[in-house]
Write a structure and sequence with these properties.
two-stranded antiparallel sheet; 3-stranded antiparallel beta sheet; mainly alpha; 315 residues
Length: 315
């Protein structure tokens, strides 16, 4: 114990050691400290996780020895303290898996439909082509919040009752509803159309002289040249689906096992932030959720830059 004079009083510093003399290893060692009346808590070497009662009560989640348990303790808590009531499995891993499934599925459908639609609008001649493109541009100007009620009703009725043919009365609370409602975006088709229009027509003409069909030209010549915009769409689509919050919150309501990661983080906020003001696990879960997008951008950043630059010009 050390005492020093301070402004308006006396500052007392306490130092103590925790020694485990038993045979059972203790991983987390929580501690609560209450300051007596007419005294004030100033600071501690290990910052408290919570301060309550106007500064008179401090709480530490773990004061055990070691840097790693203290620095990465909240990351372990995110995986360890959240369980499914029905299956008993860890919810955070389930949320990550659900988000990966939705993001990868949407990326695949976007790449397939956007590339085919973009090629058709850019290189093929058919009746109503300009009208379809005008409708495409018009749909890009409408925000999602304007159409979400009608989209919700379509999913509630099973796409005008067609899902009843497969024994599914509604597409709400299902991954199929999220996937079907966002198979491909208008902006993705626009990017692919702009890229295919930039390619020289001589490539397609020489292939047709050799007897290649439209499908052969698309899959053997045009699609292999479209790696830059496809890489850009991969990043944009994955990031958009991974961070999507509003629409999954409307479609997926229960159980917690089906939530994507964004809705799972909302549950963390309700569990840790609303009642206990324990923000550590929430921030840890948010950081973990940002890692896949960062890794994906690093892996595809070359294609992303080339795809955006190519799709914005027309040769």
């Amino acid at each position: 114990m050390k005492r020093e004079p301070a402004e308006g009083g006396l500052t007392t510093t306490y130092r103590f050691r925790l020694v485990n003399t038993g045979e059972v290893a203790l991983d987390p060692v929580p501690m609560d400290l209450t300051v007596p009346m007419r005294q004030q808590f100033v600071s501690a070497t290990l910052a408290p996780n919570r301060i309550e009662r106007l500064g008179r009560a401090q709480s530490w989640n773990n004061v055990s020895a070691g840097l790693l348990p203290y620095v990465f303790g909240n990351y372990a808590r995110v995986f360890r303290e959240n369980y499914s009531a029905s299956t008993g499995k860890g919810l955070f891993l389930l949320w990550i898996r659900n988000s990966f499934f939705l993001a990868v599925t949407r990326v695949i459908t976007t790449l397939i439909f956007a590339s085919m639609a973009g090629y058709a609008l850019a290189r093929l001649n058919f009746r109503g082509k300009q009208g379809i493109f005008a409708f495409l541009l018009f749909s890009m100007m409408i925000p999602q919040q304007v159409t979400f009620i009608s989209n919700y009703l379509v999913l509630r009725d099973g796409i005008f009752g067609l899902s009843r043919l497969f024994g599914v009365p509604t597409l709400l609370n299902t991954y199929a509803g999220l996937i079907v409602s966002g198979l491909v975006g208008a902006s993705s088709v626009f990017i692919m159309k702009q890229f295919f229009e930039r390619l020289p027509a001589s490539l397609e003409e020489s292939a047709r002289i050799d007897g290649a069909s439209t499908y052969t030209v698309f899959f053997r010549i045009m699609l292999p040249l479209a790696k830059p915009p496809l890489g850009a769409l991969t990043i944009l689509t994955f990031q958009g689906v991974w961070n999507e919050f509003f629409w999954p919150l409307v479609v997926i309501t229960s159980p917690a096992d089906r939530f994507p990661l964004t809705i799972g983080l909302l549950n963390l906020q309700r569990a840790y932030g609303a009642a206990t003001f324990d923000w550590g696990p929430i921030l840890a879960g948010t950081f973990i959720s940002a890692l896949p997008v960062i890794i994906l951008f690093i892996a595809f950043q070359q294609y992303f830059v080339e795809g955006i630059s190519f799709s914005g010009t027309k040769g």
